Amino acid sequence: MPSFPVHIVVAQMLCDEIGVENKPDFLLGCIAPDSVNLKGFASQQVRYAAHIRSVDYDLWKKQLTEFYIDNKQSFESDIDYLKGYLFHCITDIAWDEAVQPELFAFLQSKGELPREEITRLKWEELFRFNSLLVGRDDLVQALLELRKAKPRDIATVTAEQVQEYRDYVVNDYKDKISSEPPQFLCEEHIDMCAERTLELYIQLIR
Description:
With 206 residues, this protein is mostly helical. The protein has one domain. The longest helix has 20 residues. The mean pLDDT is 96. The chain is globular, with a radius of gyration of 16 Å. It has 10 helices and no strands.
C-alpha cells in the first residue's frame, strides 16, 4: 500500500480525467480509509473493513464495485467523496499490482530476509519517497483543497476520524518523511501506479 502523498499525487493526476467536480470532497475521500491508522496500524479486521478489502484481490475488486452501487444513491449529493474513498482503495490495489513487486524484488536483492524485515524496509523506502513528493506543487495545492472539505461518515470510518486524520496530514505528517532520498522509488513508479489506477477505476467504477 502506498503512503498518503502517493495517494494524493495520483488523485491530482487523474481527477480531471475521471470527471471529478468537487475536488476537496474527492481528495478528502482519497485519504479517508487510512484514518483508522492515525494512532498506529489498526488491526487487520479494522483496516480491511475500512478499505472494503479481502485477501483475495479479485474479491476485493468486486466488493468495491458493489459498495459503489449500494451507496451512490445515499451519497448522491456527495458523490465525489464516495468516488474518492473508492479511488483510495483502487490506488492501493494498483500500487500492489504495478509497483510493489518491483520494490520487493529490489529489497530482496539485499539477501534473504524475513517478511517482517521486508515490510519494515518497504516503509522506510516509502518514507524516503515521501521526501520527494511533499514538495510537489500538486501536493501542496491539494493540502489547501483538503482544508475546505467536510468530513463525513463512510463505510466503517467516522467523520471524526476523517477530520482528525485530515488535520494530521495537512498540519503535521513530519514523522512519515525521511531526511534521506529514496534508494529505489522514483517518479516513474508514480506514473506506473497512476496508469494502473485509471485502468482499474474505469473497470470497477465507471
